[in-house]
Amino acid sequence: MAYNAVILGSGPAGYSAAIYLSRAGHRPLLLTGMEFGGAIARTMHLENYPGFPQKIDGVFLTEEMRRQAEVFGTEIMAATVASVDFSKRPLVLKLDDGRELETESVIVATGSEHRALGLPNEKALLGNGVSYCATCDGFFFKGKDVFIVGGGNAAAHEALHLSTICKSVTLVHRKPVLSAETILQERLRETGNINIILESTIEELVSKNGALSAVRVKGADGKIAEHHTPALFISIGSVPRTEIFKGQLELDAAGYIKCLPDLCSTSAKGVFAAGDVRSPRFRQAVIAAGSGAQAAMEANDYLSSL
To answer: In CATH, what is the architecture of 130-234?
Structure first.
């Protein structure tokens, strides 16, 4: 099967790209992957996406985007790409069911996934006290004593953000020192309601009535202490979904797709990247949607030049 544009990923970046390409007169194919709606579909309370003053969830948002893309002519297929060959023209995508697709252009919007602690009930408590996004969910714990795990720049930024909302913030890090930039560490220590616990790990999540009620923390001395809290924010990095692009696209040391400065164009001609797959810094639906639109506009220019 041959197409002029194929979009990989069904989150805000992918659907936004589909909407823009469709409205430009193309009939793109969007492959949803196994996670319908992308990572944002796991967000139960979304209040910072423009245009929705009422609280919505990620599933609602991406389903509305899906319908809009279909209205303008996007073909949507529930399929996952197993491998790619970007050295050929047209570009070749091999699906996990063995089918092969040929296309003139590809927009990669496969996103990234949060690195989890791996605790037994971590997934069950997601959205019920466990969160991977303080910017998204911190507001719901206003005036509460919350915990955050991590030691890098992202964790420091999230702890500082939470300190303006919550009664207290306890930052737990497994190493003797934080890896965040010095200026961020200084801000953490200067903020009166932030506590830092080093050489410690979250060993267990305690729940009550289906929601997080406490965390058990193992300290440097090996002892475990239980701390009552309604929220644990996990900020230990993310893993980009770029495994199939190794050797096909230029990636950075962490596996994120490298793009040309201020562009979505990748190292392969006709291939563009959008959303969290490009960078772990700003993990917001509105930013992903914007980069999806940009990738589509660049793809449209590319297709027009052929």
So the answer is: 3-Layer(bba) Sandwich (3.50)
